[in-house]
Design goal:
Number of helices: 6
Order of helices and strands: HEEEHHEEHEEHH
Helix content: 40-55%
Shape: globular
């Protein structure tokens, strides 16, 4: 059973690497050992940008999770065993290790192959929402905010399809680099 879940996770990471390549125009691959290089300076998260010129400048640490089911209500209920909370904590930990911005990509069984949830926090979420047309007269982007002080979580959830079709990576990249410098 572990082999199947490991293969499932590897397949999902390859799918998301391709998604990032299509969205950004840069080459991505799975981190060798997929996070198993915990002590390596440049290895973080599940995916890395391997583009010769852009790789070191890529501002995000990407964590990928393909899980049986994802229950966002557990965050609202304060369920201490919530998988999303542990996934987010792992994404934040990896991002902090390498001075990057955490980005969690999740999907559950039965979702379309190229769809998933992109989870970020703070200023990056605001930038994504702005590019999706988040104003009173627009209903072009699907996203939600989830915060729970008891679980110490404060995140925004976006649909991958909306990000890919409506968010300009180069604009997001420029703003993300400014955030990292702060």
């Amino acid at each position: 059973m572990k082999t199947n879940s490991k293969n499932k996770g590897s397949r999902f990471e390859r799918t998301i690497a391709k998604w990032f390549e299509e969205w950004t125009g840069y080459k991505f691959s799975r981190t060798p050992g997929s996070g198993g290089w915990a002590k390596a300076k440049d290895a973080f998260g599940d995916l890395v940008c391997t583009d010769e010129k852009h790789g070191r400048r890529f501002p995000f640490s990407i964590e990928c999770k393909n899980y049986k089911d994802i229950k966002f209500e557990h965050l609202l209920l304060g369920n201490k065993a919530c998988k999303i909370k542990s996934f987010w904590d792992q994404a934040v930990h990896d991002a902090n290790r390498c001075n990057k911005i955490p980005m969690l990509i999740m999907k559950y069984n039965g979702m379309a192959k190229n769809e998933g949830f992109l989870i970020v926090n703070g200023s990056i979420a605001n930038l994504l929402a702005a590019q999706l047309g988040d104003d009173e007269n627009s209903n072009t982007g699907r996203f939600m905010y989830i915060g729970n002080k008891n679980l110490d979580i404060d995140v925004y959830v976006f649909m991958l399809s909306d990000i890919k079709s409506k968010v300009d990576y180069s604009t997001l990249y420029k703003e993300a680099k400014k955030l990292i410098k702060k």
